[in-house]
Structures are given as structure tokens and as C-alpha cells.
Predict the structure.
Amino acid sequence: MAKIKLTKNELKKQKDSLKMYRRYLPTLMLKKQQLQGEIRITELRIEELHAEKNRLDETFKNWVGVFAEKGIFTPKILKITSLRTSQGNIAGVSIPIFEGAEFSVAPYDLARTPPWLDTAVEKMKQVILLDLEAQIVEEQRKRLDHELRVTTQRVNLFEKIKIPETRGSIKKIQVYLGDQQTSAVVRGKIAKSGLVKAAQ
């Protein structure tokens, strides 16, 4: 605890500080609750995306044999050309929002490729989109987690350190000033009685 001056000005300063801490603490606590709620929403969305991807992976098990056909489905056939995101704001935290992605499909000969290739390309797009969205939602959660840690530290600082410290300082100054006032009254009475005796 920093050394405080035992003066009326310091008392006013400490009271102003206490008022400020009490005013900002509820706002910080509200922000903390909002962040916790938003983190839970992102966690649920991540679970949904993983469940959807697992469901798609199950359907792909039926396709594994045809994917093995030589040279038909290669990684070069499907490419991501652009990832579309925008910026959002939750409780003062800037977060990326997934908007979608653009793909390019390498040209292939419809007569020479099996009919399932079109469906496979569409299924792969779905899987990639789920992965991309999951990455963006993970980034949202990471940023919200960081802000929650900072906000929690501030709440704890105000609740457990600043407010009790300031209350203690106010009490200490009030006791000191009260003692000084009592002392001054006593000295005044002693001086007055000394003057009365001297006058007799």
C-alpha cells in the first residue's frame, strides 16, 4: 500500500477514488458475465461444427474406395481462392466473423471422369467450409478468452485490492484528522484554563 498523506485533500482524493471504483466495478462485472456467455456460445458453435464434420466424415467412409481410383480425385482439383471474413465486436472485443469462402475447381473431362466426381467435389467443399469456420470461431474464442482474463484481473483488482485499500486509507485519515481535532480542542481548553488561572 502506497504511503498516504493524512490531510483533508488526501481524504477527498481517496473518497473520489472509492466512488470511481464502485462506479466501474458493476460495469466490469457485467462485461465479465457477457464475455463468459459469448465464450459459451462459441464453444457450442465449435461443437456443432465438429459434429457436422464428423457426420460428413461418416458419409465419406462410403466414398473411400472410389477416392482411391487412380488420379481421379487429386488435391489439385479443388482450391480455396479466397476466404471471406468481416469484423465484429463483442463487449469491446474485435473478432473475425466467417462469411464464407470461394473455391476454384480445376477443369476435368466429364466424359472421362466418373459421375460421382461432381458430388465428391461438393462434399469436399462442405468439409473445407466447416474447417474454415471452425478456425475462425476458435480465433473468436481465443480473443474472448484473453479479454475475459484481463477483465477478471480488473474485477479482482477493484474488489480485492483497490476498494479495501481505499476504505482503509479513508478510515486511517478520518481517525488521524479526528484525533487532531480532539487534540486541538483539548489544547484549546488547557490554554483557556491557563489564561483563566493567570487572570486570577
Q: What stands out?
A: The longest helix spans residues 116-199. The chain has a mean pLDDT of 87.
